[in-house]
Please model this.
Amino acid sequence: MNKATVVSVLWYGATVVACFALVRQCRKPAWLPGRLFARMMNSTHFAMTTWALTHVPLATDSVVLDVGCGGGRTIQQLTRLAPAGRVCGIDYSAASVAVARGTNAAAIAAGRVDIRVGSVSSLPYADESFDAATAIETHYYWPNLTTDLREIRRVLRPGGRIAIVAEAYRGKRFGAAEVLVMRVLGSKLLTIDEHRAACAAAGFSGVEVFEERKKGWLCVVGVKGAYQWSANWS
Ligand SMILES: C[S@@+](CC[C@H](N)C(=O)[O-])C[C@H]1O[C@@H](n2cnc3c(N)ncnc32)[C@H](O)[C@@H]1O
Model:
């Protein structure tokens, strides 16, 4: 092999490794690139999250948990939807939590938001602490979807809702690239029926599925206990 070929092979190899490392940042943001990814996701997930939150009934004083909160923009949206409530965020990436705390600095200082490092598998909250929980583009990374959803169910009050939101799911239009990326990330893409089944297996009832087919957005909402619509929800 001549010198030029060796340089090309090394360059190609380094590019592949760098791309892999960057894509892995979606799964667990770390260090400076992780912080940049968390900030980027604050923008790229905003429109989908805004749409999804229209399917999550919240009262002005709701207490809400955002699991896998990333850069914290969903937390910011939730504080606006529940202006007399409280919002907690949790993420197992210290880089994500640092960005989320920056995004919500004023609300944290006002005592309306609390953001912690922690795993969905072992939430540091008492039983029945929350009226609703959101999980935006995160559930496909969790170690065990059914048991992790059960853990979220534990911290929800009776009648509380979980909203699982994703652009990455099986069966959407033009989803072939995502299948590949998720394979690189070591995550499994679920069909809509598999989402329903996981919610039901975790004990959620009244599972509703909302799909924005043109955009390729999915929002699955399950209820802890009997499905009840309250006139107080705005
Ligand atoms: C693709 S990002 C989405 C972040 C944010 N929800 C958003 O919409 O921008 C996925 C986030 O889920 C977090 N995450 C993944 N697995 C987790 C787990 N087992 N427990 C807690 N957080 C997790 C990652 O650290 C990352 O910040």
About this structure: The beta strands are 63-67, 86-91, 113-117, 130-136, 156-166, 204-212, 217-224. The chain has one domain: 27-224.
